[in-house]
Write a structure and sequence with these properties.
This protein is an alpha+beta fold.
């Protein structure tokens, strides 16, 4: 009896653990049908008893196979049938990983623009029109995040999805030249079908592996590069010539890839935007999440206020004699304010000769740095740049030997505080021509276009590194003589080219507006233009200006 029971039990066990041959055939057919994207056949095989999570000899499930091949309708059917997205194949890969990676792939787009560049020497004409291309990333709310320089001066913008030949017309929503970021969108909602917006992650850590996605020059296909985060720093943004937080990665950022995404674990951790100057290879920079978050928050009210700035210049406080003069105690550290745009009358402003000890509760070192999450130190300006215009930040100062705490309301952005007009998208030089002499406000675009390798006049170098003086209108700029159209009326005046103007007809000049005003209100027969450092004077007879003006415009093809 016991022997009989044993035989019966063994038979039952064999029946229970054996898989019928027909089921194995269904499972093989299921994986093959998934590989070919045969969704209806997959459903039929599942209804007939095929195991939705069955694996082949390589550990591949039907879901992993369909995801690898991009058969998304089949993928949805398998998931609805209970397929395990976390089941691992032989190499440890899962369908979840494949699906997440494809979310990234569908979110990366190629951007095309028609770009117009003005002529900074002859500002009444266009220098060139050029087609440019870059990359972008789809984020929430049907918006595409990209680098500002990708659509800089764009007259038209078109966007192409990965795997599509159709270019959709796009429009600019917001642009922050200082942070080199822009948002564009496509009004035709058909464009966003089959795409999934990516999520913005946190600041990556040193050593994190980063994958960048974009469309670099040299081909039309989506390309990826991999590298690690090798440095997090406060570094210059070449496009805007301002400083902000960056992540350095050991992967090259090639032309055309700018504006594409950098990802860690399929979360967006940066926008690719520039490489390293010089001979360094395989070094690129990405705009990290703190800068992106500041930009996106700035757009929420529909107005682009820009990247905040204190509007000051400062000096290190490590010298014992300097510290003694400003009554700093031994345990104090900070930065001396040497120039400030802030009002001298406001008790909550940052004034010249004060020492900044703390910003938002964080102690500022004598070299201007604060502790950073990387374990190293970084410029204290990083704190301000992550805030918004109008926010109030507590700042501890040392004034005349007394510690005070002020509630400083951030008033300026980084483009308002400088003397030299910074680059911004759509910039066209404002100018005035008098007697064949062209006057305009000094701009970085003019300097970079006219003077190679930073060989501009010394006064321009000083000006581009300076902020506006305290108590001045934030629109203060430097007017200078940029171009001379030779004519008898301006004989011997060529020595004044690229020299700054101090006054016109006795009125101080600090913008093109005040330059024009000084000309308009002058009731004398002569216009007198004085240059800086007592360099000299230009005098024009009003009657000759009128007589020669039409001749000069005709000779040089200048529209009135």
């Amino acid at each position: 009896m016991n022997l009989t029971k044993s035989i019966i039990s063994s038979a039952l066990l064999i029946v229970l653990i054996s898989v019928p041959a027909w089921t194995q055939d269904f499972n093989s057919e299921l994986i093959e049908a998934a590989e070919n994207g045969q969704t209806e056949k997959v459903k039929s095989l599942l209804a007939a008893g095929a195991d939705v999570n069955a694996k082949d000899n390589d550990g591949m499930t039907a879901l992993i196979t369909a995801a690898n091949e991009g058969h998304w309708e089949t993928v949805r059917g398998l998931l609805d049938a209970g397929a395990d997205a976390n089941a691992e194949e032989e190499d440890g890969n899962t369908a979840f990983n494949v699906l997440a990676t494809d979310d990234v792939r569908t979110a990366v787009v190629q951007i095309f623009s028609q770009t117009v560049y003005p002529d900074y020497i002859y500002p009444w004409q266009i220098r060139t029109i050029r087609e440019t291309a870059g990359s972008g990333v789809i984020i929430e709310n049907n918006q595409i995040l990209t680098a500002a320089h990708v659509i800089d001066n764009a007259q038209s913008i078109y966007v192409r999805k990965t795997g599509s030949e159709i270019k959709y017309e796009a429009e600019l929503q917001f642009i922050s030249d200082s942070s080199d970021l822009a948002l564009i969108t496509v009004t035709d909602r058909e464009f966003f079908k089959g795409t999934k917006p990516v999520k913005l992650g946190d600041l990556p850590k040193l050593g994190d592996e980063v994958t960048t996605w974009g469309f670099p020059e040299g081909g039309t296909q989506l390309a990826i590069t991999r590298g690690i985060v090798s440095r997090i720093d406060f570094y210059e943004y070449v496009y805007s010539a301002t400083y902000n937080l960056v992540c350095q990665i050991d992967a090259a950022i090639n032309s055309g890839a700018s504006g594409g995404g950098a990802f860690v674990n399929n979360q967006l951790v940066g926008i690719t935007f520039q490489g390293m100057n010089g001979d360094a290879e395989n070094i690129g920079y990405i705009i990290p999440p703190p800068v992106i978050k500041q930009f996106l928050k700035d757009t929420e009210d529909g107005i682009m206020d820009g990247v905040p700035a204190l509007g000051i210049k400062f000096q290190e406080m490590g010298n014992p004699q300097l510290r003694e003069k400003y009554q700093m105690q031994e345990d104090m550290t900070g930065q001396l304010v040497t120039n400030s745009m802030n009002s001298e009358d406001d008790t909550n402003s940052i004034k010249i000769n004060g020492v900044i000890l703390e910003v938002n509760g964080v102690s500022v070192a004598n070299d201007g740095t604060i502790p950073f999450v990387s374990g190293d130190r970084i410029q204290f300006s990083t704190l301000i740049k992550q805030m918004q215009i109008g926010e109030i930040v507590p700042i501890r100062l040392l004034r005349n030997g007394e510690e005070i705490l002020i509630k400083y309301q951030i008033e300026y952005n980084s483009q308002q505080i400088v003397l030299v007009t910074p680059h911004y998208s759509g910039f066209v030089p404002d100018y005035e021509m008098i007697g064949g002499l062209v006057f305009q406000e000094l701009s970085r675009d003019y300097m970079e276009y006219v003077f190679a390798d930073d060989n501009e006049p010394a006064w321009m170098t000083d000006a581009k590194n300076d902020v506006q003086g305290h108590g001045v209108n934030r629109n203060e700029r430097i007017v200078f003589l940029s171009t001379i159209m030779p004519d008898e009326i301006n004989k011997d005046y060529e020595v004044f080219e690229d020299m700054p103007v101090v006054s016109v007809n006795g009125m101080q000049v600090d913008s093109m507006d005040t330059f024009r005003q000084a000309l308009e209100v002058n009731e004398m027969d002569l216009h007198t233009i004085e240059f800086d450092d007592h360099f000299g004077t230009i005098v024009f007879d009003k009657r000759l200006i009128e007589e020669r003006g039409a001749i000069i415009r005709t000779n040089y093809g200048i529209d009135e």
